[in-house]
Amino acid sequence: MTLVSAIVPTYDRPSFIDGAVETALAQTHDEMEVVVVCDPPVEETRAVLERYADDERVRAVYNDERVGIAASRNRAVELARGEYVCILDDDDRWGPQKVEKQLEVMEANPGCGAVYTGGLVRKDGRIVGRYQPSMSGDIYPEILARFGLKPYSGHMIRAECFETVGGYDTDFDCGEDWDHAIRVAREYEYEYVPEPLVVRQFHDSNASEQAVDQVDRLQLDLEESMDIAGRIWSKYREELERHPDVQRRLRHGRHVSYGWTEIERNNRRRAFRYGWEAAKYGPTIASFAVCCFALLGPSVLDLVRSVRDTVTDSHIDRSAVDWQRETRTEPTTDEAEPLPRA
After folding, report:
1. How many C-beta atoms lie closer than 10 Å to residue 83's C-beta?
2. Residue 171 CB neighbour total at 10 angstroms
3. Rounded CA gap, 43 and 56, in Å?
4. 20 and 90 in contact (C-beta within 8 Å)?
5. How far is CA 265 from the centre of its chain?
6. Helical spans, DSSP H, in 138-267
7. For residue 321, is pLDDT > 90?
8. Burial group, residue 327, by CB count within 10 angstroms (0-12, 13-18, 19+)
9. Residue 55: how many other CB atoms lie within 10 Å
């Protein structure tokens, strides 16, 4: 049977890590291994992972110094022995059939380098959003405009892809997933499983938060996340210039992100300016929403978010998320992680 490796980078979050290990070991596909790479501080995390010392399916290594998520992912990939590598962030959780269903798609498409899945967004005990996959086949150069392959914990990647395109770029302390996917997409096709087989949990210690709809494009770490498009622009400028329409859409997305950031800061005039500039690149719902909420202010945006979360949770198809009851999705300590503003 095909060995699949789940790689889990973690940093000082012992209350999440055993849930990540368990969600990988609970897969219906039997041949699984879990490779955990811990950035320091590691003592509390080490104490949790020692519970798996006698489980040959779980291997944990500890960096001597903080190297960041890209380098930690690279170390995990180097240690992985599977034919396929599955990405798993320590606070995300998988449905039990995720790997099995991805393997079916992967093995039916020999030219495919990666298969990703749909996902759900969980916040404060509620399902507040859903990722619906849409990009498949040859997605280059479209992927230069936006990273429409969320959630990243839904990705299964052929191990050979890392030999072909290299590992994660350590110059990216955020957005390394988008950058790597661009390089994979140059050489391979992408496919997806449409079902929501991953749950993302949003809380204050997330590295970043991807928007779940056109209204809520805010990131938890806004200044860091909004610069990702700028880094993509800098690294892939020559390629983008060969594709003017893709370049335009990237610029549009960057201005939208800046606009939402300024709304969050209550810099309403600057936010409106960014929304207006975004509209010049494309008169979309997103650019219109930035201009609208720049005029209305962040308090109205908070109200809209709260209503949206309530409506989404009440209309979600519960049959699609029954597996959550079988897989722990909360921190394992009595004191839960703080949650972001609604």
Report:
1. 15
2. 12
3. 21
4. yes
5. 24
6. 159-165, 176-187, 222-226, 228-235, 237-241, 244-264
7. no
8. middle
9. 12
pLDDT, tens digit, 9 for 90 and up, residues 211-257:
333 333 333 344 444 578 889 999 999 999 999 999 999 999 889 98
State the pLDDT at residue 301: 77
Of 274, 134, 141, 173, residue with least CA distance to 217: 274
Asked if 124 and 342 touch (Cβ cutoff 8 Å), the reply is: yes
User: Which residues share a beta bridge with 4?
Assistant: 32, 84
Contact 52, 58 (CB under 8 A): yes
Place of tokens 């978010």: 305
Query: Which tokens hold the place of 243?
Result: 């594709």
Q: Alpha helix (H) ranges present in 28-131?
A: 43-49, 69-79, 98-108
State yes or no: pLDDT of 297 exceeds 60. yes
* pTM beyond 0.90, yes or no: no
Half-sphere exposure of 291 (CA within 13 A, CB side): 13
In which band, very low, low, confident or very high, does the pLDDT at 303 lie, cut at 50, 70 and 90?
confident
Domains of the chain (ranges, CATH numbers): 4-210 (3.90.550.10), 222-315 (no CATH)
3-class DSSP state of 111: coil
CA distance 263 to 275: 10
Contact between 127 and 121 under an 8 Å Cβ cutoff? The reply is yes
Q: In a 3-state reduction of DSSP, which class is residue 155? A: coil
What's the residue count for the chain?
A: 342
Q: Is 53 helix (H, G, I), strand (E, B) or coil?
A: coil
> Is the distance from CB of 93 to CB of 120 less than 8 angstroms?
no
Integer Cα distance of 115 and 136 in angstroms: 9
Partners of 131 in the β-ladder: 119
Secondary structure element (H or E) that encloses residue 151, with its range: none
Residue 315 is predicted with a pLDDT of 61
Q: Taking residues 134-157, what's their average pLDDT?
A: 96
The answer to whether 12 and 45 are in contact (CB under 8 A) is yes
SS3 of 254-288: the string is HHHHHHHHHHHCCCHHHHHHHHHHHHHHCCCHHHH
